[in-house]
Amino acid sequence: MKRSTLSLAVVSALWADTAYAAGGGLDWQGMLFHAINLAILLFVIIKFGGPQVSAALQGRSESVSKDIVEAKALFDEAETMLTEIDARVAGFEAKAEELLADYTSLGEAERDRIIAEATVEADRIRNEAKRVAENEAVRARATLEAEIVDQAVATAEAIIKEQLTADDHHRLVTDYFGQLEADIKA
Predict the structure, then answer these.
(1) Degrees (nearest 5) of the Cα angle 13, 19, 20?
(2) CA torsion 133→134→135→138, rounded to 10°?
(3) Rounded to an integer, what is the distance from CA 30 to the centroid of its chain?
(4) Residue 62: which residues within 8 A CB-CB, separation 6 or more?
(5) Which residues contact 13 (CB under 8 A, 6 or more apart)?
(6) CA-CA distance, 34 to 41, in Å (whole number)?
């Protein structure tokens, strides 16, 4: 890894050379000077800062590894919880369908019971109405007959009064009392 870092640094130094960037020719002497300066800088960094950088990178690697292990454990726990929740949801859906079927059947039974009660009540009301209508018809017939009889009697009385003379009246009264006396003696 140190060689690739060094190679990358040399290429970067060459690439960033001001003469090369300005479009002029390559200054080999300047590039050599830059390469030597870079090598010295990298040597100093690696010699004096290498163990601290290595320790820091090692610590970071361990931290990332620990985070990965914790994330895996949390992921596995979340998958387990998701499986449990999915099972519960499936149970709830089945229970909801069962309750819906129960309530539907209860509703249908209640509807049928109400229809049966309404049919019985309608028959009772029809029979009662028929009985009341018959009673009213009998009562109306009796009232009508009484009115007809009263009217017939009134009409007959008026006709008799018109046609009855005093002699007829006297003769009827005498016949009536004679018949009454005969009924009493008998």
Answers:
(1) 65
(2) 120
(3) 82
(4) none
(5) 31, 34, 35, 38
(6) 10
Query: pLDDT (tens digit, 9 = 90+) per residue, 92-142?
Result: 888 989 999 999 999 999 999 999 999 999 999 999 999 999 999 999 999
Alpha-carbon distance of 83 to 77, in angstroms, equals 10
**What sign has the CA pseudo-torsion 112, 115, 117, 119?**
negative
pTM of the model as a whole: 0.38
Residue 1 has what pLDDT?
Answer: 46
Instruction: Tell me if 35 sits within 8 A of 13, measured CB to CB.
Output: yes
Write the CA distances from 48 to 40, 53, 145, integer angstroms: 12, 10, 140
Give Cα separations from 50 to 8, 44, 46, 53, 177 (angstroms).
Answer: 18, 9, 4, 5, 164
Distance, in Å, from the CA atom of 155 to the CA atom of 148, rounded to the nearest integer, reads: 10
What's the token pair of residue 120?
Answer: 């019985």
The 10s digit of each residue's pLDDT in 49-105 is: 778 878 888 889 999 999 999 999 999 999 999 999 998 888 888 898 999 999 999
Q: Quick one: DSSP state of residue 22?
A: T
